[in-house]
Amino acid sequence: MIRLATDVGGTFTDLVGYDEKTGKVFTSKSLTTPQDQSIGVLDVIDRAESASGLDTDKVRFFAHGGTTVINAITERKGVRTALVTTAGFRDVLEIGRGNRPDLYNLQFHSPEPFIPRKLRTEVRERVGADGRVIEPLNEDDVREAARLFLEEGVEAVAVIFLHSYAHPDHEKRCAELLRDLLPDVTVCASYEISRQWREYERTNTVALNAYVQPIIQRYFANLEKALAAKGVYSAYYAMLSNGGVATFSQAVASPLTLVESGPSGGAAGAARIGAILGERDVLYLDVGGTTAKCTLIRDGKPNLDAEYKLEWARTFPGYPVQVPVVDIVEIGSGGGSIAWIDAAGGLRVGPKSAGSAPGPACYGLGGTEPTVTDAKVAIGLLDPAAFAEGAMTLDVELAQQAIAGLAGPLGLSVDDVAQAIIDVAESNMINALKLVTVQRGHDPRDLALVVSGGAGPMLGARLGRELNAKSIIIPPHSGIFSAWGMLAAHPRADIRKTWFSPLVASSLGELAKLFTDMEGEALSYFDRDNTDGVTFSYTVEMRYHGQEHSVSTRFTPSMQLVDFAEAFHSAHETAYSFRLPDARIEVTNLHLQAEIAGNVIDCPPIDNDGRTVAKARKGERKVYFGNDGGWKSCAVYDRNGLPCGERLSGPLLVEEPTTTTLVHAGQVLEVTDRGIMVITEEVR
Amino acid sequence: MEQQVRAVDPVTQEIIQGKLLSMVDEMGIVMARTSMSPVIYEVLDFACGICTRDCDLIAQTNGITLFTGTFATQVRSLVERFADDMAPGDVLVTNDPYAGGTHSCDLAIMRPIFAEGRIIAFAINVAHWLDVGGAVPGSLPPDASSVFQEGLRLPCVRIARDDKLLPDMVRIISENVRLPEVALGDLNAQLATVRIAERRILEMVEKYGAATVQDAFDHLLDVSERRSQDVITALPDGTYEATDIIDGDGISTDPIEVKVAIRIAGGRMEVDFTGCPPAAAGPINCARGALSSAVKTIFKALVAPQEPSNEGWFRPLSVIAPDGTVFTAQKPSPTGWYYEGSVHASELVWKALAPLMPERFSAGSYSSLCVTYINGRTADGEEFIHIEPQHGGWGGAPGRDGASAVIALTDGDTYNYSVELIEAKFPLHVRRYALNVEGGAGAGQWRGGFGVVREYEILSGEADIHSGFGRSRTPPWGMDGGGSGSLNRLDVVDQETANTVTYGRLSHRRVVKGDLLRIATGGGGGWGDPAMRSRDAIAEDIRSGYISAERAASEYNHRGTATK
Known about the structure:
The complex is a heterodimer.
Chain A: E1 2-8, E2 12-19, E3 25-31, H1 37-52, E4 59-65, H2 68-74, E5 81-86, H3 92-95, E6 120-123, E7 126-127, E8 133-135, H4 139-152, E9 156-160, H5 169-181, E10 186-189, H6 190-193, H7 199-230, E11 235-239, E12 245-247, H8 248-253, H9 261-277, E13 282-287, E14 292-298, E15 301-302, E16 304-305, E17 309-310, E18 319-320, E19 325-326, E20 328-331, E21 337-341, E22 347-353, H10 372-378, H11 396-410, H12 414-436, E23 448-452, H13 457-467, E24 471-474, H14 481-486, E25 492-502, H15 507-526, E26 534-544, E27 551-555, H16 561-576, E28 585-596, H17 613-616, E29 617-624, E30 631-638, E31 647-649, E32 652-656, E33 659-663, E34 667-671, E35 677-681
Helix pairs in contact in A: 1-7, 2-7, 4-5, 10-11, 10-12, 11-12, 12-13
Chain B: H1 10-34, H2 38-41, E1 46-52, E2 57-62, H3 71-82, E3 91-94, E4 106-115, E5 118-128, E6 157-161, E7 164-165, H4 167-176, H5 180-208, H6 210-234, E8 238-247, E9 255-265, E10 268-272, H7 288-303, E11 317-320, H8 338-353, E12 371-377, E13 383-388, H9 419-425, E14 428-435, E15 452-458, E16 462-468, E17 489-493, E18 500-503, E19 505-512, E20 516-520, H10 535-543, H11 549-556
Parallel strand pairs in B: 10-11
Antiparallel strand pairs in B: 1-2, 1-5, 3-4, 3-6, 4-5, 6-7, 8-9, 9-10, 12-13, 12-16, 14-15, 15-20, 16-19, 17-18, 17-20
Helix pairs in contact in B: 1-5, 1-6, 4-5, 5-6, 7-8
């Protein structure tokens, strides 16, 4: 039986297959087909069949990550969508939160709403904060709204009423009426996607969900048809943003959960690598062509971002969505990032990227601006002849020429500029890695740094050293690691619910009861009638009375009040460095995580027979280390020939088809029995 | 001093600048996450920064613009007072409005950072405390007539030694403020931020050496200065003037006429407030530190809106104003609602400069934070205070209509309150939260954006309210032929008589269950002649319900209704 994953990225569609019986791993890559991504998916399967003998008949599990949802949103290509709100509140979506993070921009505007005012309609109804009905739903208003929508030719309608997280009946009835009256229109009610408070965030969530739902519905229908035609008859799963997977039909019901499916696959993979090595707390860095992304994995699970915002930037509020998304900090520093000199005469790297066309100057495709990849070629980190499995020869001279353009203004040699470009890119990454660790109360010395992406492993060793990370880990298949990670994901549901209450003795019973209800919801989501094979974990968000921000605390139904309160105090102390033992505690949200256990991808043991360090050695290459020793000769090894258990001292390079790993002087590389590379500081 | 070629290589320079930003970010995160005051965690009424050993601001995190330019003066006044009497682990404090500060509620704490035996930098944090004592809860009586009604003052004193709070100071604070736990909680959060700053600066010094760090600071300031000067040099030399009216001082509603003359020559800008009236009787005055900050806000918007802030940018700027005016109040003039005055200093500069660089400016905005206080008791008898600033309409700008419902210039990353959260927390029922389209916005080729309407029904037996709404009589200004915006107002509707009274700055009113508060903020001014507005844009506005057909007819001479 084979488990298969395809990950559609901006440029490439990646495939990883895993034969559970033999442990064999299949990989392939093809170009992404933006018009209909399912074509590229079939291409990549074709390639795997012809190049590595993948047998599609044996596929029993198919996981898919793609960019259909995020593309429809960023390109504003969703369907014509309307909104129904409680009377008096149709402008909430347009008002947003009104913050102006771009402080000195006197022409600042809040994010443009996805549904224009003329398509936002109010109906009379009202529920209070305690879930009590203050005014019943006026069904005539709903009928009137339906008439307007018909006239306006909308394809989707979102429904949001105040406090529906506490009492969804009005939304339920309104959606039911609209579905009857508008049979060809997609209708989403907010309670179906989010049971959390904050009306703007929930409105935005349901609006975006409706905006993309018909599109993802069509996409998955196409993909299923194509896969069936290809002979891939298996359960079809979509990679979710929370590090889990869901069936296509579950994903269609709440498509917004697919927004960050690619990066979330990588995070699931990093958690899996951690599990194989016995590391529960992992800091994950993926360096791609245009960006670097960092995620923290705690206790074996990627951290979720409770306040995820699409298109957020330092100076732009973005669009908050109340769906579970892995907490990812993303910065514009990748292999293709362009180095430039700013108005102050300083050297900057990114966020502008050379992309794949023309790409870095060394590609010889017409690019003239120096990129991080050019710098790597110039200082000898990359072998110009063996790039991308030898599919492309890099031009060292073009790289040097591009870099030379900066040498004059900076008053540095070409070698030093190249080293400086890497220094600045690394410094950007360090600041981002600190944001998800130190600045959130986690000590990097307790964390293993897992580094993937085509451009990551040659930077990882130094980043880990600067952060004082416990170890630096280079997983297998680093260049297609998101796809690999999708085979490590379990079917998973995250259910969040707002429940506002002081924490008192009777709360524990109520919490247990609420969680039982939520377990029921999870089971019906999984379409199961019992809990066999389903694991649940319970988290309660709490805060001190008077505070605004909550801290998550693990809950078990058998807990005593005093222990539960202590767990909260201690979580607060870890996050913010202090506790207030006498302050009252308030519950704000409940979070149930349900997962169906099952087989996931493993790293098969490597066959050490006949492997020796000497045989793995491909030769030597001079690499420039700047102030740290200038040009030094480094041994170059082939990753696929390295034996396990040997300790190799840096500086050295390890090459594999999709990436190169650099180990610095003073560091030691060891390959585990499962082919994972672990770099640590030499004990002096 | 001898001129060196360049002491720091550009790479180290870039990396040090990146570390400075990540350092002040970290200070900001700790502050926002651990504070007990909504005014800090929701409104982000605080700022953190690092100053050089010469007291020049080198890096800052800003939640709001009010603190754009206060740090350097505050650090300077502390250093002047303590001179050599500073040691590692000391923390000094000031909330003196007349020594670079703003109002008594804003507590600035400063920690000198020592490296290699001498001061290398100062870390500073200023935060708005919920209450510092004084005449009313919150310490901001809208009709205060002297600073002594505005609470405890700690003018340049030591608050900690060896990184430990001095017990005498703790006692003075806890006996003089209404909510000591909250005040000390916030003080602890502030101390944590400057402690972190010290740790990070010392890491930097360890890595690069004190001399390199110092040189990098100097270089950053010099480069910013040069870039700022380039922008000013490119503007036509000349004198640019503007006038405006402040709608009452909280005690009387008499108009207060203010003005500015800006002289640009030789790459420098001189902003002169000579001729502004003497300090007002009520608390809308600001002192010199807040005035300078208000001017710097617009100067920054002009020269480099998105660049990280430091003192270098402001070197080509000087601010001139005689002592004792409404913008340079002196002890004991009240300054509690200083931002209601200082925003007009900002707006004067904005209004005078807008025609020079239209791509950076917009027409006048609703300006006032329109803060409302509602306090009373919940059904359980517990006291509550709901303090809320409001968002409003901004002016049109060449190429785009004004922004609707964003926070006033004086604030920044300030969120509105969620209706669902408010109803769960306070005995208030929100009837409506909408764009204030009926209030209208300034007509123009690019019309103003709309304010908001928020209606509160009081659910508790009784409650007390007070408020500070500016621009309740003088509307936001239009630019280049655009029309004026609309007014801010607070309507209180008596449930028994259905009688409505409209207020601006209100010192006190008792309301009872069922009464309705309607908070309505104004629309921004228009930019450009309304006759130039595209007919399609007008029709689309009618169709979207932004303006009525009648208003389209009167403001734009638009005939006919919306077309599809």
